[in-house]
Amino acid sequence: MTVTSTATPDAGRQERSTTADRDLVVAELDVLRALVVGGDPAPARARLDGLRARTPGDSRLDEVAAAFDLSSFERATLLLASGPDLVGDVGRELAERTGQPFLTFAAALAILPDPHWDALTHTAPLRSWSLLRPQDASALLATPLLPDERVVHHLVGVETSDERLDGLSRPLETPPDLPPTHAAVAAEVVRRWAAEGLVVLRGPQPRSTREIAAAACATVGLEPRLVAASDLPTSGPELAALVRRMARESLLGRVGWVLDLEQAPPGLVPAVGRVVPTSEVPLVMTVSDRPGGAVAGGLDGLAVPVLRVPRLGAGERAGTYARALRRAGVHVPEPEVAAAAGTFDLALPDVRVAADEVAHGVSLWTACRRRPRADVGGLARVRSTTVGWDRLVLPDEQLAQLRALVAAARHRTTVLDAWGFAAASERGRGTAALFAGDSGTGKTFAAEVVAHDLALDLVHVDLSQVVDKYLGETEKRLAQLFDAAEDGGMVLLFDEADALFGKRSEVKDSHDRYANVEVGYLLQRLEAFGGLAVLTTNARSALDVAFTRRLSTIVTFPYPDRPARLRMWQQSLPPALPTADLDLGRLAEADLSGGAIAAAALQAAYLAADDGGVLTMSHLAQAVRWELAKNGRVANRGATGPRRPA
């Protein structure tokens, strides 16, 4: 199939009505009917010539004959086999001539001009394209030749589609425009189609990649349809037949195919690679950048071009956002657009959805912030935090480091792009910070404060869902998290990061080797990450040295001293809590971390609610003793004993 034309489907076809299409086909059928009944075909041929002169463009039968390279005999065989479905008298006329109300190959050889025996071989167009099907392939001469319903509808100008393919595919929306970087990739797809056929698009945002493929289809006048690889048959013959059917639909309905390789079953990708080059189907396969799996391995051995779809830079994203907002009929100040584009790297369809939400009164920042939340799946909890700096009890040095971390995330675009630091460094655009300290010293709480100050979601990674015993699965799950966080400007939080970024072990067996590969991938992905990643650990010494070198910031969270503990106690008791005769200074004597103080305050409140509804020192002292006992410690009597005399 030629896919270099940038024209829309035939202009003559657009000007003709369905009635005119049918009239042309029926007029040509009348010529063949004259041959069936033994009459003179000249009058019917004259009527056909007159109708052609009055009707612009080729008939549908002309188009089919040209598209599938039919000989004059094959063309006539197809039309006469379709005759009983087009004109009721044709079946009767065939029965009077041959004894059967349908066309057989024997009758076609006897009645139609320029016959040739190979017209009904399985490699000839009529059967290889499933235009006709012999009812009994073991009796080619005497069996009815059954036309495909899709083909019959097409011959008379009825716009329909292949029923089987409709169940396997769905229309893919063509984007109203593409940013220049993506438009260049779409143009390259068209060029590669003409030169090499099958093309693979690979990128970090599947929805954007599919839109580029759709735009390439539209450029050459094809309607894009999306097929999921997981829905395709895995056996070679069935797959080949389906791909051939897709190619036929491309010719009949001007369809271009986009095959989504995510969730492709093992072995399917190389199988498609073997089948497609032998067909004429305009096909783009799309795949994400996520590592591992059968897809990656299949692509490595596929002798087809793989085009990389890059992420857009902040400047090009800003232009994309601005165009989407204009189409939605809303005006957003340029600094606000630049701020959103510098933080949120949304896929192209999400940009349009966000713009529509802005048109309905949502702020641009909020609309962008909530688009990628669903992409995290079950691998992490997405949290919208509400705690501010006033709740964070830390020494001034650590507070200064955290505020500098916020500044780095907030002004990334200005420093890296406008001031030129990105061009002077090979490092990634993101920021990776390690929060190290004993359990309960406020590491996770500080991450919540940072995310709230940046007005970003916090993605709290669930390690039990990420780490997998099967080779490659951990990398794929982490890649999904990193991609979603990068799209949505989210803050990634890995609690107990030493479980993922621990020291690589000496290779003693295959498990060690794969574990080291896993850590190596994580280090590379963390460095390339364009957002803010926060990792916490209770054991900094357990972390891989190569990992710590890649960190932008390391904040050490000290165990709280007595003044810090007093502030924590003060903050842990809400203003609405009924209290009586509390001495928080005495409670601060107890050697508790911030997390333990919060837990003790909550436990004491439950005790108070069950004991008259007023919080007293006895409730707090009991909760402190229980909290200390968790670690096998005993409370200081000064902190929990009877009040000392004044």
From TrEMBL:
Q: Where is the AAA+ ATPase domain?
A: 429-561
Q: Which UniProt keywords apply?
A: ATP-binding, Nucleotide-binding
Q: Which residues form a coiled coil?
A: none
Similarity remark: Belongs to the AAA ATPase family.
Q: What is this protein identified as? A: ATPase
Q: Which Gene3D superfamilies does this UniProt record tie to the protein?
A: P-loop containing nucleotide triphosphate hydrolases
Top-level taxon in the UniProt lineage: Bacteria
MF terms per GO, please? ATP binding; ATP hydrolysis activity
Pfam families, alphabetically? AAA, WHD
Query: What PANTHER family has UniProt attached to this entry?
Result: 26S PROTEASOME REGULATORY SUBUNIT
Query: Record keywords: ATP-binding included?
Result: yes
